[in-house]
Amino acid sequence: MQRKLFALGAAALALSFSTAASAQGAGDREGFYVFGGVGAAMTQWDAKRSALPAGQKRSQDKTGASLVLGGGYRFNQYFAVEGSYHDMFSEVSRRGVGDYDTRTLQLSALGILPIGERFEVFGKASLGRARNEFSPARGAVGLSKASESVNVASLGVGANYHFNDRFALRLDVTGLSKADGGSFRRKAGADDLKTGEASLAVMYRF
After folding, report:
1. Cα–Cα distance between 161 and 119 in angstroms, integer?
2. What is the largest CA-CA distance in the chain?
3. pTM more than 0.85
4. Residue 113 is inside which H or E element, if any?
5. What is the DSSP string of 131-148?
6. Which residues contact 49 (CB under 8 A, 6 or more apart)?
């Protein structure tokens, strides 16, 4: 799944390069900005064999809808910092195992490369705090309800298209990162849980 996430990001970057090859240099876009949008939160769920119903694969990739809200400050053409909230408002489920949900607050540093007047691409490093919840399916053996808060770190790529000095469209792809503790995994019957996200947002610069 990690390859799929970064393949999507690479495709967006390639599109930006090819579309904006003949554009002029971008002007400075310093100052505060906010953004909001929706996306797909992707979970790589490796369950313990003892927790699986008969015939179910141990490793599954699950996708749920997500909400993204954030704001930041751009210091110059090439660097910005931002805070954001990510909410998987659609739980991911495994038949006979249970439902998983996560919400994250994170702080990110962005390195930005303008390509012409309207396009730019960026790389992102993030640290944050995630709130994870698990509810076992009815009849699940050896599993129990669990919740935890845990530190998370992730890397991502993205691209912006600026319609004008105020509004832009933003594509953001974050790679899979581990976002759970050992106690949580035991209660959820999981050997490993990793989450990532691809989102599309509208950005407004003040």
Report:
1. 5
2. 62
3. no
4. strand 98-115
5. EEEEEEPTT-SS---EEE
6. 58
